[in-house]
Structures are given as C-alpha cells and as structure tokens.
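We store chain and fold; example below:
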Amino acid sequence: MRQWLVDPKFLCRKHLLGEHVEHHMFMGSIMKGTSITGYLRDGLLEPKTLQKRHTELANEMISRGYNHKSPLLDIDITHLPAGKININRNIEDLRHRCEECRHRIDSHIKGDR
C-alpha cells in the first residue's frame, strides 16, 4: 500500500484506482489499530493527507467519467505522526514502472512549458 501524492492527472487508470482503494485500506488498518510504522518509515504514507487526497482522487475519477461511490471512513487520525512522502521520487518511480503514467507525466510537463 502507498500514497503516490503526485498530481492525480499523472496517474493511469490502474494507479489512480489503486491509490484510491489503498486509502480505504489505510483507513481500515488505522481503525483496527494495525501498525502503520513501516509505511511511515518507508515514506509511503502521510496520514494527515488521507482525507484531502481521497477527495482529489475521487474528483479525478469523476472527471474521467468513472463512478465514485465510496466515501472515506471519517475517523480521528490526529494522534498519528505526519509522515513524509517524496513526491519527486514517486514521479520518477511512476515514470519507470508504468508506460502510461510516463506518457501522462511527460505530456503534462510539456503542456506546462
């Protein structure tokens, strides 16, 4: 499980929907009291951004014409550490692991120039 935290427009369908479902999995784990220490240590999770990021992902899903009917659990996460994700590293990771994400990232970057 991980949060990419890159611009949702960069994500292919698989990575967009994957990160979305993983937000639900993270919240379920947190609710059950499952340790998230490894995710925090490895820079895969920023708990304090879960709700906002879920909304960003849901909005991107809707803009692509996908259905979104799964609100995120509303649980208290204020006691959790912040975590820190390296977004630039995640962009490069996506570029190397997924041809469609690479195309989306490169197209977006060229469009910003």
User: Anything to note?
Assistant: The helical segments are 13-32, 37-41, 50-63, 87-97, 99-112. The chain has a mean pLDDT of 94.
